[in-house]
Design goal:
Number of helices: 18
Number of domains: 5
Structural class: alpha+beta
Mean pLDDT: 77
CATH class of the largest domain: Mainly Alpha
Strand order of the largest sheet: 1-2-3-4-6-5
CATH architecture of the largest domain: Orthogonal Bundle
CATH topology of the largest domain: Transferase(Phosphotransferase), domain 1
Strand content: 15-25%
Radius of gyration: 47 Å
Oligomer: single chain
Low-confidence stretches: 156-173, 293-329, 587-647
Helix content: 25-40%
CATH superfamily of the largest domain: Transferase(Phosphotransferase) domain 1
Shape: extended
Length: about 650
């Protein structure tokens, strides 16, 4: 039954189903308190009545929750509600490594090495914590959009077996990564995981697993006796040092394999620096391989072993119980007879014993209220509890806390205010420090983000990609999401920042272009365009040569390169052409004389001279008159401007 739209624990809103497996369904969900996207794995309702599956489900949660590594999917919460058992984990945006191989086929050896370094690093961290994955395969490895690799499904191997076979013995996947010693019935070890890592590496370089067969037994036999096919025969460009890692990781003899995942990681780090080393060889087993478990036992019913381990203690036979009761009755009769014979002495002793017993019982069952020591320093809490008559469990847990600094009590068992007996043992959980809460670095300059993260102890990796929204060298994504909690004491903390390359846009030269055409050109390039009308010019020469509605100047010089869209640019232009103004006449300083009919006028130093009239008219003579406003005062007869005079 689908649980979509359900809200678990009052905070996890299930949005949609994103995956299904043999024992659990996985939902995309929103944590309504921390406002982040998470994945919620829910044990299938058909299995909730089986205590073995419930135990295994909790075992998976416990195993993964004990780990905190950038290449392992983080576990945030575990709970149970209305018989629904769920695990809340990090939501990884990306795809499984298996899907990546399905889409792309064999990978280039450099890319495959980068993926394997991350997978092996996560596996090594699990091994350091005493956890063997037992089901390493591309289906359980996630690749984010930024290239970060994360291992998922810790503990699944013990839940859905090593073979994952259907009732018709059809291999489902994990058998292809099965170490030979497991097929022989031996216990899984660190080297078993290393063998699976070698098979995964082979698959990345080849695009398929090394062994296939018609039956599970056939595939298991190949793992036990056949040499791993050479990846260099498939692709000769792969360095021999790279193939040697696969050969050593998948050696049939456990002693020939890497002793640890750290050793394998070291070879992955250095293999490209020694490409021409000789091919590594190991002797193949000469004995005929033997599979201890039968096909139906080993590959179909892996739960039998654990069921036997967990079967209840045997119930005592009925006959034995009856005999014991009879024997007790006989002893009781003998004691009663003895007391009758020694009534006086025994009565006194019995009375004293009764009184002492009552006192001891009352004292031992005195009920007290558990004091609240949460928030107190560890030493103070221990002193107070001992003063109250309680014992302190010597195994004091340490955990990171949201609220309390290192050394302060964050939890007690029993809880505060519970009624408990005097002398009870109290278990304390003490803070090992406060969590680091990851900040959102989206939109922050890489230099600033790197400085802050390195100060917090992170190793910062960068991945560049073109982005039109963010300018160059600005963070656009991060491998650890905003709000995620990180152990401040963790070593080798790594975060990958996706950084914008920006875009490169060259500003064109638009001077002299039509203003609207220029605006359209810039907008297509991604600029934000402002138009600005220039003030009217007063210089006649400018006015005579000016053009209207064309670009006169631009705020960003031509051929300048910008690294993002949305940059503002202003285009300046004239929207009309003013009239040219002539000099204004001044009657105070000028003397105006009407020219003769030849209209010969000469203005020089504000002096107007009237020429005589030479129109060859009979009986008509023009007067000659001149006036200089600077030096001459005109007489009335000389100051008459009547045009031509007729005698």
């Amino acid at each position: 039954m689908s649980e979509v739209e359900r809200v678990l624990a009052g905070r996890y809103h299930l949005i949609r189903l994103i995956g299904q497996g043999g024992m659990a369904d996985v939902y995309l969900a929103e944590d309504q308190i921390l406002k982040r996207t998470v994945a919620v794995k829910i044990l299938r309702s058909s299995l909730t009545g089986d205590p073995i599956y419930i135990t295994r489900f909790h075992r998976e949660a416990s195993a993964a929750a004990a780990l905190s590594h950038p290449n392992i999917v983080a576990i945030y919460d575990v709970g149970e509600e209305d018989e629904l058992y769920y695990i809340v984990m990090e939501y990884v945006r990306g795809q499984t490594l298996k899907n990546l191989l399905y889409k792309r086929g064999a990978l280039h050896h450099v890319e495959a090495i980068d993926i394997m370094k991350q997978v092996v690093a996560g596996t090594a961290d699990a091994h350091h914590h005493g956890i063997i994955h037992r089901d390493l395969k591309p289906q359980n490895i996630l690749v984010t959009d930024s290239g970060t690799v994360k291992i998922a499904d810790f503990g699944i191997a013990s839940i859905s077996s090593l073979s994952q076979v259907t009732e018709t013995d059809t291999v489902m996947g994990s058998l292809h990564y099965l170490a030979p010693e497991i097929a022989r019935g031996e216990k899984a070890t660190v080297q078993s995981d290393i063998y699976a890592l070698g098979i995964v590496f082979y698959e990345l370089l080849r695009g398929e697993v090394p062994f296939n067969g018609e039956s599970p037994v056939n595939i298991a036999l190949k793992h036990m006796r056949d040499e791993i096919p050479s990846v260099r025969e498939f692709n000769p460009s792969i360095p021999q040092s790279v193939e040697n890692i696969i050969i050593k990781a998948t050696a049939k003899n456990v002693k020939d394999r890497y002793a640890s995942a750290d050793e394998m990681l070291e070879d992955l780090e250095t293999c490209l620096s020694r490409p021409d080393e000789p091919k590594l060889t190991f002797d193949l087993p000469t004995d005929e391989p033997t599979i201890i478990a039968g096909e139906t036992q080993f590959f179909k019913k892996p739960e039998l072993e654990e069921q036997e381990e967990e079967k209840p203690a045997e119930i005592e036979p009925k006959e034995t119980r009856t005999t014991r009761v009879t024997r007790l009755n006989e002893q009781k009769a003998k004691k009663q007879s003895s007391r009758k014979k020694k009534m006086i002495g025994a009565g006194v002793i019995a009375l004293l014993a009764l009184v002492i017993g009552i006192v001891v019982y009352i004292n031992s069952n005195q009920s007290l209220t558990m004091p609240n020591v949460v928030g107190m320093k560890k030493a103070e809490a221990i002193a107070l509890l001992k003063e109250k008559g309680y014992k302190i469990d010597s195994d004091i847990d340490e955990e990171l806390s949201d609220d309390y600094a290192k050394g302060y009590v964050i939890e007690t068992d029993p809880l505060a205010n519970k009624r408990i007996k005097k002398g009870s043992t109290i278990k304390l959980t003490v803070s090992s420090g406060k969590y680091q809460v990851m900040k959102d670095y989206t939109g922050v300059k890489l230099s600033q983000a790197r400085k802050e993260l390195e100060k917090q102890g992170f190793s910062v990796k960068t991945y560049y990609q073109t982005d039109e929204e963010f300018s160059k060298d600005v963070v656009i994504d991060q491998s650890i999401s905003k709000g995620e909690k990180i152990d401040p004491n963790e070593k080798d903390k790594t975060i990958t920042l996706t950084v914008s390359k920006g875009v490169i846009i060259t500003v064109p030269n638009l001077r002299g272009e039509n203003i609207e055409n220029a605006k359209t050109t810039l907008q297509r390039l991604g600029f934000k365009v402002n138009l600005s009308v220039l003030a009217e010019p007063t210089d006649p020469n400018v006015i005579n040569t000016m053009s209207i509605n064309t670009v006169i100047s631009q705020s960003i010089e031509p051929y300048t390169q910008v690294n993002k869209k949305g940059v503002e640019i202003t285009l300046n232009y004239y929207d009309h052409k003013p009239e040219v103004k002539t000099p204004t006449e001044n009657p105070d300083n000028n003397t105006g004389t009407t020219n003769n009919s030849n209209n010969n006028s000469n203005n020089n130093n504000n002096t107007n001279t009237t020429n005589n009239n030479n129109n060859n008219s009979s009986g008509t003579n023009g007067n000659n008159g001149s006036a200089n406003s600077d030096n001459t005062t005109n007489t009335p007869s000389e100051n008459t401007n009547t045009g031509n005079k007729t005698n």
